[in-house]
Write a structure and sequence with these properties.
This protein is α/β, with parallel strands linked by helices and about 240 residues long. About 40% of the residues lie in helices and about 30% in strands. Bound molecules: adenosine-5'-triphosphate. Adenosine-5'-triphosphate (ATP) binds next to strand 2 and helix 1.
Length: about 240
């Protein structure tokens, strides 16, 4: 579904952020991108969503193809229209807008009938958003804001949902709820590309995974194989 081949990205004239990155996100599956600070995870998300330029980055070689369409240098709107939707890092919701208004913004590209169906899907997944629909997003808890950010991304009926660090700053019990919801969203037919520093959670919910280190893919394979790899266990899962 999404195929990234030999992708090189630089910031400014020469700061290399990604080097020869290969990645495949398959339909019907959850694919995790793991890596520590500075590994290049956000850069990869920016490249896929077409917003590298805003942070001074550019693709210098390689390709990003989604459902047969080359989106390597496509603008963000065209990438969204092709079926890729991002729930950004830091659960960036529109704080002053109500929950319902946030969701409506997410659904602005689809027709009214689809918007109503997607709204039903989102409040079915996250009933708390229906309970709070008239409240400004700023009044939601961190976990609820994360649900709103994911819900907003789902409002455009994406084929591929990108989740950037959905567990960041959340209590373990809330992380577990988000993890269950990722599995449910995928079970309903949406492919997911999940960027996480919480490797344990990411490997638990993914089918496939890629480990990025200083801009290069260090390892890739099935999530189960990576979870049982001794190097991954000691470096990413905190096991002895
Ligand atoms: P984190 O988990 O901390 O967000 P990350 O894995 O997302 O890290 P990136 O933010 O993609 O990593 O950074 C990859 C490399 O690119 C780092 O060396 C970083 O310093 C550099 N970098 C990121 N953004 C910029 C920018 N706007 N200008 C210059 N260099 C940048």
């Amino acid at each position: 579904m999404l195929t990234i081949r030999s992708l090189d990205v630089i910031y400014g004239r020469s700061i290399s952020a990604l080097e020869g990155v290969d990645l495949e996100a398959r339909s019907g599956r959850v694919t995790a991108i793991l890596g520590t600070n500075g590994a290049g995870k956000s850069t990869l998300m920016r490249a896929v969503t077409g917003v590298l330029g805003a942070s001074g980055g550019s693709v210098t070689s390689g390709s990003i193809v989604f459902e047969g369409q080359d989106i390597t240098s496509a603008p963000p709107g065209a990438i969204a229209a092709a079926g890729i939707s991002l729930s950004p890092e830091g659960r960036r919701v529109f704080a002053g807008l109500t929950v319902e208004e946030n969701l409506r913004v997410g659904g602005r590209l689809v027709d009214r009938k689809r918007r109503v169906e997607n709204y039903e899907r989102v409040v079915d997944l996250f009933p708390v958003l229906e309970e709070r629909r008239r409240q400004p997003a700023v009044l939601l808890s961190g976990g609820e804001q994360q649900m709103l950010a994911i819900g907003r991304a789902l409002m455009s009926s994406p084929q591929l949902l990108l989740l950037d660090e959905p567990s960041l700053g959340l209590a373990p019990v809330v992380v577990q709820r988000i993890a269950n919801l990722i599995v449910e969203i995928n079970r309903q037919g949406t492919a997911v590309l999940l960027v996480e520093q919480n490797s344990r959670m990411a490997l638990a919910v993914s089918d496939d995974a890629v480990v990025l280190e200083t801009g290069k893919v260090q390892m890739s394979g099935s999530a189960a194989d990576l979870a049982s790899d001794p190097a991954i266990q000691s470096l990413y899962l905190g096991d002895a």
